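Task: sequence design from structure.
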């Protein structure tokens, strides 16, 4: 399948800068950051979006969110946003599930971002 996040997950395509990897997930910096810290957490398994979740993906979703929380802690983010864009009307461009971890802002104005 011609999915760029599958290629990154398999290591067939280099991602920006890798942040974390284990057998289930991978995390790397977004190439077009919308915040001082903008990291994507993806499952290695191809799931197109939140709209494509099955009941047996519960552990995977927990893992993705837990990974984002750990990275936020490691990066010393005082606060952050976790965003799943779902479908074209929801702003999703890449059809491989990914969680945006956004943070590192200094003031309220900076936080008004669209990802
Ligand atoms: P979305 O709009 O939710 O589908 O988000 C896709 C995100 O992937 C965007 O923020 C892009 O900047 C980012 N992106 C696209 N290609 C790459 C890549 N090769 N490495 C890192 N981030 C990417
Ligand atoms: Zn994929």
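Answer:
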């Amino acid at each position: 399948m011609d999915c760029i996040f599958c290629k990154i997950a398999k290591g067939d395509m280099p991602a920006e800068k890798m942040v974390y990897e284990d057998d289930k997930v991978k995390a790397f910096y977004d190439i077009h950051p919308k915040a001082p810290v903008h990291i994507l957490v993806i499952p290695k398994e191809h799931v197109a979006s939140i709209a494509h979740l099955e009941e047996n993906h519960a552990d995977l979703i927990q893992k993705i969110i837990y990974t984002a929380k750990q990275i936020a802690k490691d990066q010393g983010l005082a606060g952050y946003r976790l965003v799943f864009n779902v479908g074209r009307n929801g702003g999703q461009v890449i059809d491989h599930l990914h969680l945006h971890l956004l943070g590192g802002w200094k003031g309220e104005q900076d936080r008004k971002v669209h990802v």
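The mean pLDDT is 94.
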